[in-house]
Design brief:
alpha/beta; 6 strands; Rossmann fold
Length: 189
């Protein structure tokens, strides 16, 4: 048996990708899945186009962590619930890996305190792509050489946050580097 992993946001695009990844790793064991009510009760195998895997999607995160004895919860939900989920995960003494945007710099001290009190850890990354992390680093370095910077992004029409949390993080990091205030965003659909 490997590390016991529960995926929150399991029915969404990134949640399904995490499920596939967990199932493909011999050192990880998928023990739970929490998601949207339209998929409740479904075996997560059907969500990823595979055979049943013996894990059904449920709606109650606290109960799912407790019953599955998850050691790690991977959260790819949405900004409206991620902070509440982080509190539940810590209270249930599981470690958190969060790819959901919506957590601000002001939120971090409280999260750090809660997780330290519970003796667990959290990784909070607004974008898990290596390319996105490299782009952030390059953009911050390049910003020093240009009088102004503009961030333009496009997404599929199902994208919940526009501008994305990644774009906001880029703007904040660039603004900090060149000591300016980012201007308001313009969103076109």
């Amino acid at each position: 048996m490997g590390i016991r992993v529960l995926v929150c946001g399991a029915g969404a695009r990134m949640g399904r990708a995490v499920i596939k990844g967990v199932l493909g790793e011999p050192d990880l064991e998928l023990v739970g899945a929490v998601g949207h009510e339209k998929h409740l009760g479904e075996d997560v195998g059907s969500l990823i186009g595979s055979e049943p895997v013996g894990v059904s999607l449920v709606g109650d995160l606290r109960k799912a962590i407790s019953q599955s004895r998850a050691q790690v919860v991977v959260d790819f939900t949405n900004p409206g619930v991620v902070k509440q989920n982080l509190a539940i995960i810590a209270e249930e003494r599981a470690h958190a890996v969060v790819g959901t945007t919506g957590i601000t710099e002001q939120d971090l001290p409280g999260i750090v305190t809660l997780y330290r009190q519970q003796g667990v850890s959290a990784v909070i990354a607004p974008n898990f792509a290596v390319g996105a992390a490299l782009l952030l680093r390059f953009a911050v370095q390049a910003a020093q050489f240009f009088p102004q910077v503009e961030i333009i992004e496009t997404h599929h029409d199902q994208k919940l946050d526009a501008p994305s949390g990644t774009a906001i993080k880029y703007a904040e990091a660039i603004a900090q580097e060149v000591e300016c205030t980012p201007s308001p965003t313009k969103v076109e659909k």
